[in-house]
Amino acid sequence: MNVSPHPRLRCAVLDDFQDAALRSADWSVIEDRVDVVTFREHIAE
Predict the structure, then answer these.
(1) Which tens digits make up the pLDDT trace of 13-44?
(2) Which own/partner contact pairs does 16-20 have at CB distance under 8 Å and 24+ positions apart?
(3) Best CA proximity match to 34, nearest among 9, 7, 5
(4) What predicted TM-score, i.e. pTM, was given to this entire model?
(5) How far apart are alpha carbons 25 and 27 in whole angstroms?
(6) Distance in angstroms (rounded) separating the CA atoms of residues 39 and 45
(7) Helix, strand, coil: what percent of the chain each, to 5?
(8) Pairing between strand 9-13 and 34-38?
(9) Residue 36 to residues 1, 2, 19: CA-CA distances in angstroms?
(10) Rounded Cα–Cα distance for residues 4 and 12 (Å)
C-alpha cells in the first residue's frame, strides 16, 4: 500500500459562473497536490 505523507487537498471555487477561475491562473503548479473543483451555480445563503 502506497501512503503519501501528505494527503491531497481539495479546493472548491464557488460561484464561478463565468469559468474565470480556471482561466485566470496557472493551476498546474498545484495540480499534483490539490484537486480543484469549480461550481458554476450560485449557492444561496
Answers:
(1) 988 888 888 899 899 999 999 999 988 887 77
(2) 16/40, 17/41, 17/42
(3) 9
(4) 0.66
(5) 6
(6) 15
(7) 20, 20, 60
(8) parallel
(9) 25, 23, 13
(10) 22
Residue appearing with cell numbers 480543484: 36
C-alpha to C-alpha distance for 31 and 28, rounded to whole angstroms? 5
28-34 own/partner pairs: CB under 8 Å, 24+ apart: 33/6, 33/8, 33/9, 34/8, 34/9, 34/10
Question: Is the separation of the CB atoms in 40 and 17 below 8 Å?
Answer: yes
The full set of domain ranges for the chain reads 1-45
Sign of CA dihedral 11, 13, 22, 41: positive
